[in-house]
Amino acid sequence: MAYEKTLKLVTNLDRGAVEAKIAEIRDSARSSQLAELASLLTGVEGLPTRADGSAREGRSQVARRQAAAQIPAGATGAGGAQPPEPEVSCASITIFSPSAAARAGSARAAYPPPTTRAWRSPSPAASAGTCVNVGCIPKKLLSYAAHFREDFEVAAAYGWNAGAPSFDWPTLLANKDREIERLNGVYERALTGAGVEIIRGRAAVKGPNEVEVNGRTYSARYILVATGAWPRLPQIPGSELAITSNEAFHLPNLPSRALVVGGGYIAVEFASIFNGVGVPTTLAYRGNRLLRGFDAEIGERLGEEMARKGVDVRLNMDPLRLVKLGAQIEVLFRDDSVQNYGLVMFATGRRRSPGTWAWRPRV
To answer: How many CB atoms lie within 10 A of CB 344?
Structure first.
């Protein structure tokens, strides 16, 4: 009975009262010369669903013109002159690589006229961003793979005998790439389905309302630059010999021995991954506890457990110099000790991508 009463309340909302309230706010906005708010509220009229979105678009465009016609010439609400509207080919351009900007492009496409979205990315085929391509998603797949070695050992105690397990890194990467490709397709279909035009190329802002991509200039009222951040390498001799998490997802072969530098989430994850798939791994961190921003006991216990599982955890230690020696990288540490590794990976934070701006308002 309670369920039926709730259902009745939900299915019998007073739509007329809701629409009347929207109309009241819209009329107030018009009288206060808030044309854009009034036109947006006109688009809400009738509480449209996805099915009648095209009708809403037509009403919104008409309402924008009607509302604009009601505002006296030169009125700005602050007593100043109204700046001239630029000649535009679309409502907005989003220059992006990460998925947050993809979301912004999709959301912006919900408001006519259509959005044009120009993008640049480390991988020209990638439509999603850091999380999908070189972040949480592929990292989880590698982490799952690393855990299986321990699962095989535990299974033997429960009577399972599958023989000596072997691991093939190229197979894991191929399957990981296949899944990432599928997810990129999901992102692209979501954007194109929302009316976003995708332009593949490197974008350059040429003026307050102009962006150039592949030799062609596009104009827009708004330009949103959201190109994310890039892994940061420390300023020490030989740092160019090291990799970051970006390259770790595409290693053609596993190293004979790995050094991961850092004490944050990415560092401890990759140290655990390399160790889990059978690579002797050292984790070096300049601080005295892993995961500095977390609860102290968590960081301390994590270090103990990683060491118990075979990771060489070296706290209060960071490299001062890297030197290439044949196929190995010689690392000089703060305590003057020297070790050789087949791979050095820095997980020491990220910096804003070159050329990334904050929101740039229309001029």
So the answer is: 24
Sequence-separated (6 or more) residues with CB below 8 Å from residue 149: 165, 167, 276, 277, 278
Instruction: Say what the pLDDT of residue 242 is.
Output: 97
Burial class of 51 by CB neighbour count within 10 A (0 to 12, 13 to 18, 19+): exposed
Q: 328, 360, 363, 326: which is closest to 344 by C-alpha? A: 328
Q: Which residues of 208-223 are buried (b: 16+ CB within 10 A; e: fewer)?
A: ebbbbbeeeebbbbbb
Beta bridge partners of residue 345, listed in sequence order: 243, 260
Q: Report the Cα 142 to chain-centroid distance in Å.
A: 19
Return the exposure string of 53-89: e unless at least 16 CB atoms fall within 10 Å of the residue's CB, then b.
eeebbebbeebbeebeeebeeeeeeeeeeeeeeeebe
- For each of the domains in the chain, give its residue range(s) and CATH number, in order of start: 2-69 (no CATH), 83-229+351-363 (3.50.50.60), 233-347 (3.50.50.60)
Global pTM?
Answer: 0.68
Distance from chain centroid for Cα 181 = 16
Q: What is the pLDDT of residues 46-75, one digit of tens each?
A: 444 444 444 444 444 444 444 444 444 444
Q: Please check whether residue 121 is in contact with residue 144, taking contact to mean a CB–CB distance below 8 angstroms.
A: no
Higher pLDDT among residues 179 and 198, named by residue: 179
Torsion of CA 152, 155, 159, 163, to 10 degrees: -10
Look at the block and give the residue holding tokens 């892993």.
290
CA 129/CA 134 separation, integer angstroms: 8
